[in-house]
Design a protein that fits this description.
By secondary structure, the chain is mainly α. It contains 6 helices and no strands. The longest helix is centred in the last third of the chain and has 27 residues. It is found in: Membrane.
Length: about 150
Amino acid sequence: MRNFPIYFAFVAVTLGGGLLIGYACRPGEWYDQLEKPSFNPPGWVFAPVWSLLYILIGVAGARVFLRPGLTAARALWVGLLILNFLWTPTFFGLNWPGVSLGITVLMVAGILLFIAACWGRERPSSWLFAPYALWTSFAFVLNGAIVHLNP
């Protein structure tokens, strides 16, 4: 596969960046003391789910950047990666769940726009973002519940 280095680079940036940020901003005492909803998953679920999502995000990014003419999808992909990488330090590092909730709103909207931007010319990238849309929508609900339970 002649484009393997590009795919590898995109996956390395997304997965490596996500793991690095997750390691640097681990949940701590503040998070442990928060009231959480009954549907809050156990902590061990997040790393494997996000690892898989980052791989899918990286593959979709490589596909979009290799295909000419998908300027809006490229801009959305970069913006979403920035928002995604901002959420963890905002929530766990700065302890700002309300601001983090706003970030998830932007992420869900951006993911849906990315899916729409790719649908006509790069449908596999749209499908690669479907799990990201579902998980981020769940994250929005979870983050919102935490904000509600911890005024």
